[in-house]
Structures are given as structure tokens and as C-alpha cells.
What we know:
Layout: H1 3-11, E1 15-17, E2 20-25, E3 28-33, E4 36-40, H2 45-55, E5 64-68, E6 71-75, H3 82-102, E7 123-128, E8 131-136, H4 137-148, H5 153-177, H6 183-198, H7 205-237, H8 244-251, H9 255-289
Antiparallel strand pairs: 1-2, 2-3, 3-4, 4-6, 5-6, 7-8
Amino acid sequence: MHEIWQDFFAKNNFTINGSFTNGVVNGYRVNITPLKLHIAFFALPEQILNIEQEIKPILEEKITYEFDRYGIIVKTASIWTMEKTAEKTIFILNKICDILKINGAVGDGYCPACGKKINETDVKKQDVDGFLLFVDSECADIITEETTQPNNYLLGFIGAAIGGLCGAVIGIIIHLIGFYAGISSFIAFVLGVGLYKKLGGKADKRMVVIVTSTTFIMMLLSVFIMYLVIAGNAAAEENLEIGAMEAFKLCMNDMEFKSSFIIDMVMTFLFTVAGCVAEIIKTLRAIKRNRVF
């Protein structure tokens, strides 16, 4: 260990366990591992936006960061010497702690998961992704349950499919009235996310992919089924003894029918994008921060 680190850890009373260290810097609990550090804090979404804007200018090109449920992770480059890495990391650490304090983020003595002030009787040590955190006892139980809960993709997909089906039915009704609307895909996505989690799927990026794909498939499938029914009815009116699929293929030879079908598919796709994109971004941000799950 470089002497710069030794002096820093001694000054801040860090606990050292091999390559893992933990202590409090300027009122914030910090975990430091080789080329990575975690600063635990709790802040509201609007505070985090301000914090992020102030942190960006102090970080060099080779230094990356990401917010997690319990604070911020900063990763440094491996191209520097040990001395330069130590100097840069300590400089950035102190700067970030100052930024957190200025923006009102609470640190040591508060639960980084919920922001609640904790005392010695309520606090629990929790190992999360290799970092030692001090959290409220209730949050510790929730974290333990979340980390041990199995991720049931099949049931999650069924939930997403049910949400997509509901959105598709609404989409058909709106289309029959003579309109296009992104609200049906929005409903499909929101219901899909809710039911995905309710039936046993975990809220992660895979969930977003599964629910988004299911929503698009169900919305486009609803248009196809609607035209399938129209073609089948048209065949029945002409006393043609053919199935709906065969009738659809026959109708696709008609330029007006074909154009109408293609336009409706394209418009449904575009309105599905419009209805889902904002919610997808919101959900991805929530997963990254993990505040709402």
C-alpha cells in the first residue's frame, strides 16, 4: 500500500481488511477498493441532478461514475502510477463530499437507502455488492429479501404479456373509433412493469427489455388481428369458404387494403414508441438509482 493511502486511512480512522477499506470522510461513509470507491449518502432526485452537474466538471476523461441506490460509485483509471492514482482519488473524494454537503445530501448517521436518521440500536451493517454500508434495520431486512429473492423470468413475462394484452385491447377500441393514441402502449408498458414485478420478476434492465418487446409485439399483433378479422368478415360476406388467414392474404392483393394495413402498422409502431419512450427512460433511471423498487 502506498504511503499516501496509509496516511489518509490513518487520518480518517479507516478500517482496513486486505484490499478493502471503510471509513468516514467529511461526514460520509466511504468504501475504497483498488480503482473503485463508494460514497454512501441519501438525496432526493432533484438534489442528485444538481450533484451530478457539479461532479462532472471535476472528473477527468479516464474517471467514470454511476449512482446506485446507496450513493455514488467512482472508478479510476489503471494507467496511472500508484502515487498518482492515490492523489487523484483522494482529491476527487474530498471534492465530491464537499458537493454532497453543499447540496444537502445526508451521510453518516443516516440510512443511505431511505434517508432516515439512525441510532446505534437501529443500525445494521450490510454488505451490498462488496461495500459495507450502515443502514436502518428495516431497510436491511428489505435489502436481504431483495438479494435473496429468485428472479422468475417466466412469470414476469406472463405479467408483461397480460399488461400488453390490456393495452392491445384498448388500442383496438381506440383504433375502431378512428384514432391513433400512445396511451394504449403507455398503459401496456406500465401494467406490464407492475405485473412483471408482482408475479416474481426482478426490476432490472432485462425487465425493461422483456416488457418493451412484449408491448411492441402485442400492439402490432393487435393491428394484425384486427385486419385478420376484417378480411375474414369480407370473405364471409362474399360467401367464400376460406379461413381468415387465407382471406387476409387474398385481401393483401388489393392495394387499398394493403396500404391501409401498412399505414396502420407503421402508425401503431410510432405511437407505441411515443407512448413508451418516456416511461422506459423513467424506469431505467429508477432501476439505476433503485429508489422506487
